[in-house]
Amino acid sequence: TWKWVVGPMFLYLCERLVRFWRSQQKVVVTKVVIHPFKTIELQMMKKGFKMEVGQYIFVKCPAVSKLEWHPFTLTSAPEEDYFSIHVRIVGDWTEGLFNACGCDKQEFQEAWKLPKIAVDGPFGTASEDVFSYETVMLVGAGIGVTPFASVLKSIWYKYCHDATNLKLKKIYFYWLCRDTHAFEWFADLLQSLEAQMQERNNADFLSYNIYLTGWDETQATHFVVHHEEEKDVITGLKQKTLYGRPNWENEFKTIAGKHPGSRIGVFLCGPEGLADTLNKQSISNSEADPRGVHFIFNKENF
C-alpha cells in the first residue's frame, strides 16, 4: 500500500511547496474599485506574472485568514499592464476582504494601507482556445460570465491592434442570469464594447443576447411597456433583455445556417445541466460530412 501512497503524497507536497513559494512573491494592489451591489474589483501587479484569457488564480489575504485560499477568475486581458479580479461579497471571507480593503469607509484609502495579498497561479481553462476558431459561441450563466470579461476585452484589444491577423471573425455571446443588477460591472463592459464597435462601424462583430431567467409578471409587464425605447431599461444596452431561457435548438440551427462548412467553438462556463444540453446540441447539429459545419464543445463548471 505504501508504494501507491508515496507517489501521490510526494506530488502533493511539491504542489504545496510551489504554492508556498508563490505566496511569498510580492503582489502590489494598485487599485480597488467598488462596484454596485457590493462587488469590488482588485487590480494588482506581480513581477513575472503572465496570463491568458479566461484563466483563474488562487487568492489569500492573511489579514482575513492565514490559511484560506479562494479561486477567482481573472477579468483583465493579457494586453493590460495589470491583472484584476471581481469579488462579490457573499460570505465571511469576502466580507472580511471588503473591510480589510477599507471599502466600508467613506474616506479615500491610501495604497499603503491596503492589505497584503498572496496570489497562486494563473491556471488554465478551456476558454484559452477561443482564438482557434473563426466563429465562437460564448455562453455564461450567472457568475459564469466572469471569464468572458477577460475574453471579450482581449478580443477587442487584438481587433483594434491588427484586425487583419485576427482569425476570429464572429462572436455570439449569451448571458443567462437571474438578476443583471448583481453583475452591473459586466453590463458596463458590454456598453463600452458596444460604443467602440459602433465608432468603428463594425457592430456585427459581436452579437449578444441577455436572458433574465428569474423574471415575474411585474417585470414582464414593465418590459413590454418600455420595449420600444432605444436602450434597454435594465442594462442600458441597445440589445433588449430577453425573458426566460433560450431555445438552444433554434439558436444552433440559425448559427449553422449562417456559417456553413465552419468549425464553430462553443464555450460554456456554467452548471452541469446546461453543459449537457449544449453538448447534445453541438453533436446533433454537427454534420457527418467533414466539409460541413461542426460545433466543438468546451466547458468549465463551477
UniProtKB/TrEMBL annotation:
It comes from the Eukaryota. Residues 19-129 form the FAD-binding FR-type domain. It catalyses: NADPH + 2 O2 = 2 superoxide + NADP(+) + H(+). InterPro entries: Cyt_b245_heavy_chain (IPR000778), FAD-bd_8 (IPR013112), FAD-bd_FR_type (IPR017927), Fe_red_NAD-bd_6 (IPR013121), FNR_nucleotide-bd (IPR039261), RBOH/FRE (IPR050369), Riboflavin_synthase-like_b-brl (IPR017938). It is found in: Cell membrane. GO terms for molecular function: metal ion binding; superoxide-generating NAD(P)H oxidase activity. It is a multi-pass membrane protein. Keywords: Cell membrane, Electron transport, FAD, Flavoprotein, Glycoprotein, Heme, Ion channel, Ion transport, Iron, Isopeptide bond, Membrane, Metal-binding, NADP, Oxidoreductase, Phosphoprotein, Transmembrane, Transmembrane helix, Transport, Ubl conjugation, Voltage-gated channel. GO terms for cellular component: monoatomic ion channel complex; NADPH oxidase complex. This is NADPH oxidase 2. It comes from Lanius ludovicianus (Loggerhead shrike). The gene is Cybb.
